[in-house]
Write the structure tokens for this entry.
Amino acid sequence: MSSQSTPINLVSVNTVPERAKKVIGTVIENVKDKYDIVHAGNSTTIEGVKPLLESIQPPPKILFCASMWTPEQQEEIQKIARDTIPGIKTQATPTGLQAQGGPEGVIKYLMERIDDIMTEK
């Protein structure tokens, strides 16, 4: 099954949904010639991650964790994702990157990693 046949659902965990939509929307736009990715939802809380993942069909294949979470919170979010959807790919943006580099810094960080995320087994 090629990645082009079915859109890949991606979810984010970000306390500022508008920012998540903008940043992830830019990444998706930048890779649309290679990957068919849909930003299927965002959770603003750690508690909301599991219900969000369970509510999306087909299940998300990627979870992006924003930089406002501490490393411990990011690990918890990623564990919830892996426990809820075995095989989901997770990416945690380094804590504080948004504050240091702004949205452009986060977009650059994700763009440098998107191929690895998409081809990861």
Remarks:
- DSSP finds four helices and four strands in the chain.
- The chain has one domain: 8-119.
